[in-house]
Amino acid sequence: MAEEDMMRAVRLESTGGPEALSWVSVSDVQPGEGQVRVRLAAAGVNFIDIYHRMGLYPVEFPFLPGLEGAGVVDVVGEGVTRWSVGDRVAWFSAAGSYAEYVLVDADKAVSVPQDVDLETAAAAMLQGVTAAYLVWDTYPVSAGDTCLVHAGAGGVGRLLIQMAVHLGARVFATAGTAEKQQIAQNLGAELVCGYEEFVDEIEAVAGPRPVDVAYDGVGVVTFANDLRVMRRFGMVVLFGQSSGPVPPVDLQDLNKNGSLFVTRPNIFDYTAVRGDVERYASWVFEGIESGWLDVVVGARYGLDEAGEAQRALGARETTGKVLLVPPGM
Fold first, then answer.
1. Phi, psi at residue 129, to the nearest 5°?
2. Of 8, 130, 220, 223, which has the fewest CB atoms closer than 10 Å, so is most exposed?
3. pTM confidence score
4. Residue 244 banded pLDDT, cuts 50, 70, 90
């Protein structure tokens, strides 16, 4: 195959550790009907990418990982009228995003405002849209609500804190180290504590069971205590499991802790309608442009360093967003 028909991408041949990710030459991609091809500026690294690599979410091999990124449209497929060559776009659901060129369904791309650089756009998409639907629709946060945000210095957590504060809520948070706790406090959380003792510390400040909604991306380490700190009719929003999956729940525990609600949302359900994707993403970009939403790139690696990037994220060594960029950028 001619060199001009090839591109470079990260490939996974089988499940395994970070070393299973290899930087290789693969066949170039061309858009089909309803697709655009995008020259990648940056790809986001997310826990779902790690779950694909480890086999927690089964995939067919060989597999090109990555779902999120931003870049510039360079080829437009048949039937696409929304986009033109040169448009700046971002996405969170295009398979094979760890590559020099990415095929993106035209209706799953969103426009990146000129005042938002492409790396920031890539960093904001999956986590920003996730945080937006959580505070707008899963539990609509209002002024005066009390929110608990776990992993407040992490990618979604730091955005949730800022969004909830912007909406007028009182925010408590957790984080694993003193440094991360300070980050969460600087973002607007009134109190930040560790994952083990948060019930006692929150109640010492706000009284018994003060929390209206707990946004929990940590999972098994925090979930049982979430129930103990909730107000009557409160909601636990379990949107991740970085510490491991929550075991089966006895529904009687919801009864005895105040007729609580628990939900396990999925971004693809909340963005099944194109208008919702644009609604969430537009609010995220508006927050970035207005200055009230700070999206931080915590680490930046070359695409050829994808294994190290995933290792660092999985080991919780990073704060903010982890990005991959084409080598030399």
1. -65, -40
2. 220
3. 0.91
4. confident
